[in-house]
Amino acid sequence: MKEKYCITIAFKMLIAQFILSFIAVTLGCMWGLNIENNKWSKLIYSDIKIANIALGGKTKEEAKNIIKYQYIDDIKNRKLYVTVDDKVYSVDNSNLIKGYDMDNVIDKAFNFGKNLSIIEKHKLIKTGSKERYSLDFTCDNDSIEEFTRNIEKENNKKPVNATIEMTAEGAIKIDADKKGYKIEKEKLNKDIENKIKAGVIDDIHITAPVKKTEAAVTQATLFLINTCIASFSTKFESSSFMRANNIDISVRAINGKVLIPGESFSFNEMLGQRTRERGYMEAPVIINNKIESGIGGGICQVSSTLYNAILKTGIQDIGRMHHSVPSSYVGLGLDATVDWGNIDFKFKNTLEYPIYIEARTQNKILYINIFSNSDLNKKKYIIENNINEDANGYKVKVIRKTYENGMIINSEVISNDVYTPVGSAIKKNT
Asked: Are the beta carbons of 217 and 354 closer than 8 angstroms?
C-alpha cells in the first residue's frame, strides 16, 4: 500500500510540471505573438490591396503616397476620347475628376483585422487576408456637361424635309429628305461618369450614342403627289403698285407649302405680322365697313383665292370668316378675310394624301393650284353661292356638291353669310 501511494504522488508532480510547462510555453508563445502583432499595429495587414496595388506592411502615410503616385496621378494624366463617326474629341481626365475617397478607403484597409484576437491577427499576418478595395472617384459634372455640349453642338443636325416644286416645263420635281442626327447627351454623360467613377487606368475610349431622326416630310410621302386636283385664280390688274407688292409677298410666303394628312394650315402663321420691315406697304383695306389705308392691304385676295382652291379639293375642316362688305375679286360668300392677331384663315388636310400648294402671279393674275394624288380626281366638287338680296343687304348660302362618275353623291352647306350694303361696293361686285 505504501509503494502505491509514492507512485501517485510522483504522477501528480509530473502532471503539475507538465501543466506549468504548457502554461509557460503558451504564455511565451502568446508573448511572442503579441510582440509580432504589435509590430503590425501601425501597418496594413498582409495581402491587402487597394486598386490592385499591394499595401501589406505599409503605414497609412506610405499607402497614401503609393496610391497617389502609382494610381491617382496615372489616371489623372490619362485622356478620355469620344468618337462621333470620323471625329474624335478628347479631354484630360484631370478636368473630369472632382475628388476621390482615398483617405476613407485607406482607413478601411488599415483597420481590417485590428479588432481580432491575437491568434487571428497572427494568422492574417502570416497567410494574408486577400481583402480588396477600390477607390470611388467623384465626377465634375459641370465639366462633363460642357464637354458633351460642345460635341452635341457640332454634331446635332436637324432633319431636312423632302421638297417639291413645279418646274418651268410643268413637271413635278422632288428632292430627297435628309435624316437628322442627335447625340444622346444624357446617355453619353452617364457613360463618361461611370468610366470615371470606375477608375480606369488606361485612356478611356467611348463611341457617342447617336439617334437618327426622320424628316417630317419624306421623299416617299411626296412621291404620292403626282397631279393637280384643284385650281383657282383671281385678277388684280387694277391694283396699285403697293397692293400688288403685298399680294406678291404673301404669295411667296405660301408657295411650296406641303401639308401631310392631319396637318393644319394657318394663313397668319405662314405670312407672319404685316410690317414695313418685312416689305409690306400701305394699301386699301376694309375696316368697320369702310375702305381705309393699312399696312398689308390686298393680302385678303390671296387668302380668298386660296380658300376657293381648297373648297374644290373636298377638304372638310375649314375655318374662315367673310368680309363685312362684298369683295370685287371673288363672288359673294367666297371670300376669306384675315387680320393679324384677330382673324385667321385655317384648314386641316383631311385627305388621305399630302397636298402641295403652288401659288404664283403672272400678268396681274393670281394663280393657286393644289397638287395631290391622282386618285382624288375620281371626285369633282362644284361650288354654288345662292344669293338672296333684301333691304338689309345680301344673304348668301354656299353649297359644295360632290360628283363621282358624273353622279352627285353629296351636297353640303359650307357657309351662310350676310353682307351689309355699302354704296357702290355692292354695285361694283354685281
From this structure: yes
